[in-house]
Amino acid sequence: MCFRYSTTDAAQDKFDSLSEISRVYPGQRFRPIQCCSR
After folding, report:
1. For residue 6, what are the β-bridge partners?
2. Taking the chain, what is the end-to-end CA distance rounded to the nearest angstrom?
3. One pLDDT digit (tens) per residue for the chain, 38 residues
4. How far apart are CA 31 and CA 14, in angstroms?
5. What does the pLDDT read at residue 27?
6. How far apart, in whole angstroms, are the C-alpha atoms of residue 10 and residue 17?
7. pTM for this entry
8. Of the candidates 20, 24, 11, 23, which has an alpha carbon nearest to the alpha carbon of residue 33?
9. Which among 13, 11, 8, 12 has a CA at the least distance from the CA of 27?
10. How is the chain split into domains, by residue range?
């Protein structure tokens, strides 16, 4: 099972890691999004 992370401001942008999304969107609230590989 994998999770992707999104912000409330950029819900269409999905990131694979919290470190990546916090670098691109510093200080944002992040939501984990469950993603399927299929």
Report:
1. 31
2. 12
3. 466 767 655 556 676 777 777 787 777 777 766 665 54
4. 10
5. 73
6. 15
7. 0.39
8. 11
9. 8
10. 2-35
